[in-house]
Amino acid sequence: MEEMEEELKCPVCGSFYREPIILPCSHNLCQACARNILVQTPESESPQSRRASGSGVSDYDYLDLDKMSLYSEADSGYGSYGGFASAPTTPCQKSPNGVRVFPPAMPPPATHLSPALAPVPRNSCITCPQCHRSLILDDRGLRGFPKNRVLEGVIDRYQQSKAAALKCQLCEKAPKEATVMCEQCDVFYCDPCRLRCHPPRGPLAKHRLVPPAQGRVSRRLSPRKVSTCTDHELENHSMYCVQCKMPVCYQCLEEGKHSSHEVKALGAMWKLHKSQLSQALNGLSDRAKEAKEFLVQLRNMVQQIQENSVEFEACLVAQCDALIDALNRRKAQLLARVNKEHEHKLKVVRDQISHCTVKLRQTTGLMEYCLEVIKENDPSGFLQISDALIRRVHLTEDQWGKGTLTPRMTTDFDLSLDNSPLLQSIHQLDFVQVKASSPVPATPILQLEECTHNNSATLSWKQPPLSTVPADGYILELDDGNGGQFREVYVGKETMCTVDGLHFNSTYNARVKAFNKTGVSPYSKTLVLQTSEDTDSEEQTLPFPVPSERLPLRRMSPFSSTLNLQPSFPGRSYFDFRSSPHQLSLHSSLQSLNAPGCNFETQSAPYSQLVDIKKLLAVAWFAFDPGSAHSDIILSNDNLTVTCSSYDDRVVLGKTGFSKGVHYWELTVDRYDNHPDPAFGVARMDVMKDVMLGKDDKAWAMYVDNNRSWFMHNNSHTNRTEGGITKGATIGVLLDLNRKNLTFFINDEQQGPIAFDNVEGLFFPAVSLNRNVQVTLHTGLAVPDFYSSRASIA
Q1: Which residues pair with 668 in a beta bridge?
Q2: CA-CA-CA-CA torsion for 580, 581, 584, 589, nearest 10 degrees?
Q3: Mean pLDDT of 357-365
Q4: What's the confidence (pLDDT) of residue 157?
Q5: pLDDT tens column, 23-41
Q6: Cα–Cα distance between 123 and 105 in angstroms, integer?
Q7: Residues 478 and 381 in one domain
Q8: Are the CB atoms for 771 and 647 separated by under 8 Å?
Q9: What is the number of domains present in the chain?
Q10: Cys-Cys crosslink for 613: which of 165, 213, 282, 598, Cβ 3.0 to 4.6 Å?
Q11: Average pLDDT over residues 341-352
């Protein structure tokens, strides 16, 4: 029954109801608390004065009138209590149980009458502290509200059922045990509260204080108050008005207030409403029972989740520990190999040291003996042994011949640990869902679809004709062209992918597999792409007829959306995957355009196909790469024109990388304002994108203003040269990887000496600029004639 206690407490004082009254909104208040929260309204705002003056009710004053139609005079029977008004503007307070209440506008008048009989101020307004609905009292004041005798009886039974010692009703925090009860005040006091709140002097000296147990008995034996009519206090309720939903007395019926209403016997309606409440409680009881069962289920779930979490964590820790143990075992094996190599190197070097030490000691001894012989003055004796000594000296000298003074072992360890596949597997280590029962897809069929410019090939794949298991997607893998490990370069639902910019004179292996929710299919047959070194621009005849389903040759157009995949090949940077609604293009930074295309032929091996890409012109066609550009870079004109939205220098790279051959491209200045200093050159893929090109060790550049230029690498400025750029100027960049140098041109004239020597590796065309510059890239250009002639002379 303790859960019911909140229903038995007043929202204003927070204590059990004392003489509760029922408001029109069906909420209850102590009669004394109701008087304390009365607020007096101005005369002009009362409904009576408004009706007298003929003015209508404004929306501002009666905001809740429509919502409160349940309690209007026409349908609720409470119309005699006055109309609803707007909530008073008096600052609100909070009762002990947190409900917002309004304080009285003025202190109650000094009177010796009881709270129920004391007059209330004219045009008083009361606001329910629970639903905040307001109404103005009529002349009867609080006497116009019915008393809730049922609630009083429930409170009495609840208090009688509590077996614990009676507590003080005035303690603010932890109530102490009551020591006395005042019969007149009907309040239990502890000693401190009695001395503070009920001193034995003045009018309180006449009150009778009894022990708490006797007070409880007196409360229990006090006669139950009979509910009387609110309009006729001397009459008891005997009938029930169905339309007004309230008990009435005979005098109310005789006065004709309910003459047209349906009236029934009070006892019959009492039994009917008890039956209806019991039926409603049955449904609510079922819901409460279900809620209790649901709470039990949730608590069991909490316990089960905790147990499963502990078990799962233990399993995860065991799996990870197993991986760590396997890694430690492999580490020990690798360390053993390193130690073996270490011991072998030391043994070889120590053996050579020992051997050379013995020979050096013998040689030194022979030299000292010969010097002593030379000191002899006996010619005949000297000549007897000189020939033999000369032969020994020459023989010893020959023993120190070629290779004798060369170390038999290098200090370097010819071991290289490739941990990238393992790291990738660790990064991809993740949880999987419960395995499905459906089978995995069939092995897809991989084939070459077409050849394009810049050593490019389009690969396509499909499911076998009789396959019935659908695939959710495909995984295309490609090696690095040097027989290295495969890397995932595309994962998705498409069945076509274009690989462009492959290295010349290289052999690439491609394979594909399908996957669904169950698992992954076996790999397809390996497709081998063999690129050619021949720079002849004429097309060669294919060794056999071209399949009719192959598409015609064409150059791939740029695509708008990009996705960068990072399976880095050793020394070959990464793949940049580009997609469109119709076709996929896989741009590889492995591009090295020394020579064009190749032929298409098959290999006799049962599990692979060999493809030699078609020969094309030995020039590079490329554009700027949006995927590698700084976020402030603005590209247009099919990614050939670039500018910037920032006043700071930002970097953008070309989408083609070079590692062999001679390559030349130009940039024209479309806009040049406020004398900025853009930079042009080449860079690694991981160059810093938010500073000027050449500030770090990943870029080699020339930056130039309107008067002069400088070469810059690793923030080192060299070779200041007179001559700058303006709008319309042309900057040429010549990358000669055969001679390993980089040269710059302005308006077809070489700018300064050769900018950089000893450039090796994979380089991307690069530009850095700010918002004051706009340049356009021109590619597919042949090497300038004067450079070609100079190179041939050299």
Answers
A1: 730, 776
A2: 10
A3: 91
A4: 77
A5: 888 888 898 888 888 776 6
A6: 12
A7: no
A8: yes
A9: 6
A10: 598
A11: 91
Least confident residue range of 531-540, 675-684, 713-722: 531-540
Cα separations (Å) of 747 from 3, 645, 672? 93, 27, 15
**Radius of gyration in angstroms for the set of CA atoms belonging to the chain, rounded to a whole number:** 51
- Is pTM, for the whole model, over 0.85? no
Pick 154 or 613 by higher pLDDT: 154
CA distance 543 to 536: 17
Max mean pLDDT among 139-148, 570-579, 608-617 falls in 139-148
Report how far apart the first and last C-alpha atoms of the chain are (Å, whole number).
Answer: 107
More confident residue, 438 or 48: 438
Q: Are residues 191 and 334 in the same domain?
A: no
**Does residue 235 belong to any structural domain of this protein?**
yes
Helices (H) and strands (E) in the chain, counts: 10, 38
* Whether the predicted pLDDT of 56 surpasses 70: no
The type of residue at 513 is K
Q: Which of the 8 DSSP states describes residue 130?
A: T
Please tell me the least confidently modeled range out of 144-148, 263-267, 547-551: 547-551
For the ranges 54-63, 424-433, 725-734, the one whose mean pLDDT is highest = 725-734
725 inside domain: yes
pLDDT of residue 513: 94
Closest by CA position to 597, among listed 658, 661, 533, 544? 533
d(CA 300, CA 315): 22
436: left (phi over 0), alpha (psi -120 to 50) or beta: beta
DSSP E strand stretches across 463-572? 473-478, 487-492, 496-500, 507-515, 526-530, 561-569
Among residues 620, 668, 615, 568, the alpha carbon closest in space to that of 764 is found at: 620
Structural domain includes residue 57: no
CATH number, domain with residue 179: 3.30.160
> Which 3 state secondary structure label does DSSP give 600?
strand
Which residues lie below 8 Å from residue 401, measured CB to CB, with a gap of 6+? none
- Look at residue 606 and tell me if it is in a domain: no
CB 568 within 8 A of CB 574: yes
Residue type, 212: P
CATH of the domain at 478: 2.60.40.10
Task: Say whether pLDDT at 134 is over 90.
Answer: no
Pair 285, 341 in one domain: yes
Determine contact, residues 242/264, Cβ cutoff 8 Å: yes
pLDDT (average), residues 596-625:
48
Cβ neighbours of 153 (radius 10 Å): 12
Report the alpha-carbon distance of residue 417 to residue 327 in Å, rounded. 13
- Structural domain of 143: 1-41+120-164
CB 198 within 8 A of CB 208: no
What pLDDT shows up at residue 665? Answer: 93
Where is pLDDT greater, at 614 or 330? Answer: 330
- Residue 56 three-state SS: coil
| Cα dihedral sign, 149-150-151-153 | positive
Q: Is 343 exposed, middle or buried (0-12, 13-18, 19+ CB in 10 A)?
A: exposed
- 655 and 774 in a single domain? The answer is yes
Rounded to whole angstroms, how far apart are CA atoms 330 and 320?
15
> Side by side, which strands form the sheet with 187-189?
187-189, 180-182, 209-210
Tell me the pLDDT tens digit for each residue of 483-534. Answer: 788 888 888 888 888 776 677 777 888 899 999 988 899 999 888 877 655 4
CATH code for the domain in which residue 9 is found: 3.30.40.10
> Contact at 8 Å (CB) between 772 and 673?
yes
> What CATH number did the domain enclosing 779 receive?
2.60.120.920
Stretch 557-572: mean pLDDT: 31
Predicted local distance difference test score (pLDDT) of residue 73: 36
700 and 781 co-located in one domain: yes
In a shared domain, residues 463 and 371: no
> Is 526 found in the same domain as 465?
yes
Helix H or strand E segment including 354: helix 266-374
